[in-house]
Amino acid sequence: MRNFGQCEETKKDTQIVLKDEGSRNNKSKFRLQNSGKTKVRVVEVDNCVITTGKRCDYLLVLSDGRELYIELKGSQVNYAVEQIIASIPQLTAERSTEKLGFICSTRCPISSTETQKLKKIAKKKHNLKLAIKNGEIIYKV
Prior knowledge:
By secondary structure, the protein is α/β, with parallel strands linked by helices.
């Protein structure tokens, strides 16, 4: 995994919270529970590493190499999936690395059937395990 310069910081906090500062209500949140205080690389992708085209909001790289792609969204879940998928080849060349995608939306207007279809496509084509949830997603390391 490459170095992202000023777009990256390393944190060891027990709680790492990412939220969309631009949203009115901050309902879309991702919380990493890091009870072991391991090093986590927090990369600001949107308007820092990638400034044009489709891109996710954040990338977290865990100490074991797992990559967490985070998109904080209002309601356009299909577009959020596209943003994460478009970000992966620009951020990593490692196909074998475990990749997890998280879409935190304020509301999810698509059906669970459509969500399952998106998850299957992401896994098959991009080796990406995808989680889609309204409100806050909590992931424990």
